[in-house]
Amino acid sequence: MRKLSSANLLALGFMTFALFLGAGNVVFPPEAGLVAGQNMWPTALGFLITAVGLPLLTLVALAKVGGGINELTSPLGRLAGVALAVLVYLAIGPLFATPRTAVVSYEIGVVPFVQNSWQTLLVYTLVFFSAVLFLALKPGRLMDNVGKYITPILVAALVVLGLSAILFPAGEVAPAAAAYRRAPFIEGFLQGYLTMDTLGALVFGIVVTTAIRDRQIDNTALITRYTMIAAVIAAIGLALVYLALFQLGATSGSLVEPGANGGRILAAFVQFRFGTAGSMLLSVVITLACLTTAVGLMVACGEFFSRIMPVSYSAVVWVFTLFSMAVANQGLDNLIRISIPVLVGLYPLAIVLVLVGLLVHGWARPQNIMRPVMLVALVFGVMDGLKAAGLMEPETTWLQALPLSSQGLGWLVPVVVMLVVAIVVDRSRHGALRHAANN
To answer: Least packed by Cβ within 10 Å: which of 15, 133, 178, 429?
Structure first.
């Protein structure tokens, strides 16, 4: 029976780490650190739960059911499962996340060195997505191309950036903003949504398992074990990066204006600490982080849509790459404005799917639990998305009465209540049927 060597297993973990480490993962922690200030640690804890803990659990859940979102959503029924999977793949793929990798890397890594115009954006996205296409069309070499070559460069740059933020901070930790004085943990929890890593994990599961199978590993138990090890390696790496970037943001208040975004904070810090050489380092970090994430997303979309549609993997990759390039050229502001309502609506569904999927794995009738709970999450997710899009009054009385509603977590208590009710009803029905069979 074939097994992965320690070096290949470490490369798999590095590949998984790099797939998650996109531009948002580098930009959002310093922004949260700046506004959290003296409440940085409880904010960081909440952030790590949604930006590290939930993606880790997602990969574990996918490994347990076979590595793909289709298997995880199977208790919902084929139609509902495919519909949810398509929404997740489109959101994390060509509609929002993949174009965002190109635009963010352009604005942070390229604009400081060139004159910003639609022509330069067009040229950059052409080069960027050509590289994505080249790497994505060779998925069997993904672990080699990303895990062994690109990721070590990315890690080295991040180590330099993180150590400089910890050992040579730009200033003192600033006071916390108002919202982060009241509820720093919840604010951090919600900030973790912005990384989109839980949604990303739903599509990256198949990338990781495909990379393992491409090494002629066929044993299901080994594939599950290697996936979980890779997830842990990636989670440790992400947590260390996030904590260092939180520290960078919390101590950089003297370098930027209040409310500055993470890109400006990073740029100001590296310019302050390293000068032009630092700006070039930041450009390398952002570009490599975005490139590896874009490749992973494209591979995942190609694998998924070529299975559910009568088209080849390469055809999906070509079409989605060209579409992503077209969307990227619409600009970052338009992408963010459109993606936020979709993200707010999908996240409760993704969280509930993963946690309930882990809970009911191996049960005789998981559909009796997952379907009603996911229905509640869907209702509240749609309402949250409509509110975020400005299509629904945010001060709806009965919604505001729900616990944590003002913090954007109004879906949590109804979901937990439905979960308890569904489990009680299912256990009672099972007990009644067993009693009737014995009689």
So the answer is: 178
